[in-house]
Structures
1.
Amino acid sequence: MNLWVLAVRLTGLGWYVALCIVFGIVGGLALDGLLETKPLFMLLGILLGSVVAFWGLYKMVQPLLNAAASQGKNDNGSNS
């Protein structure tokens, strides 16, 4: 895989994680302001945003890891 393609993918993953957590915080703050329960929904938003972010991160990185593992097997198999 080209180094630039990998760099752009990893940058996109960073933005995805950041936006999931920020949207969780903003949504929690909005619900807290609406329902007057100051820290509750913000904390739940952080938790939910983090879970969604890292689950999505896992699902997006898994094909890259599988491709690297299969490429490593092919490289080792051809040298034998």
2.
Amino acid sequence: MVNLTVFSTDSKGNKFPKESIYAEMACDMTESNADAAAEYLKYGLDDSKANLDKLLIEKNVKEDLIIRAKSTYIKMLTAYINALSNGQNPENGFLLAKEKYEYSKKMKSINNRFETAIEKAYANALLKTKRYSDALPFLETYVLQGSSDPITLSDLKTAYLAKNGQNADFDSYLLKLKTEQKTVLKEEITKIAIKEPAPEFELKDVNGKTVRLSDYKGKVVVLDFWATWCGPCKASFPAMQKTINRYNNDPGVVFLFLHTWEKKSGNPTVEAGKYITDNKYTFKVLMDLRNSVTNESAAASAYKVKGIPAKFVIDGKGDIRFSTSGFSQDADKAVEELSAMIEFAKQR
């Protein structure tokens, strides 16, 4: 590897190697050109590790800076492992993945999100090196947790048949897992259920019609706080549309998308309606516009929204049973989790 390190600077004049930029770009190359990606990702991995180590020994460092540095390091580490695993010498990826996975299991204080990322890189390394028996338990867990995307199911089938023989009854095995999945999800969402009165609101939809929460008394109502400028909000919409499609024929379940925290330019009502129409979503959009005096969005304030996307599941008696924020990149898992919350609320 030829060292061509050239330094660039950020907006504050801090120097950082351009290779780190290349490494960020190489994260998307781990499938298409794994060996080339690994070469650049190694630069990013070394740089992120050095930055993290520096912050850990400094005094009075803000916790959010350390968390951000850890996140960057884990991103580079897992991308590098995946690139090695997908490349010409996958055994190198397996050895590194195993080392980091075993270390993460020993660290009691490690962030669950970081541990999951390392675990998935390890599972991928097991698959790429054809250690199917070892990979199978991880894949089963992902399905039980709600991940049913085509890639996971394809890997599951490969691992299952490799372990049990090509004539094994995979369909019956998968059906059993899917049945167990519903039980697991039900147990998990029961643990995070809450019960508190849902604040009433009165908003107009994109056509100017007044809508109140009380209009849907007796129904399960799913509120989704979003905005056209919010990338994660829009990234969650395909999963939301899938969930809506699942409940299309259930008059007892309603989905309301509350556009909130609009920017001070343009016409938010027009922009929100256009975005939904252009993307062919069947969402009922309400406008939680800012108050001209307080600059607050009334519904978002009433529901104590701290960040978007934020979702609330309200039962037929008017109580909030679930409150979530952020979005899952696993669309199938997001659909199953939200559906489990809805089913829970329907029974209350």
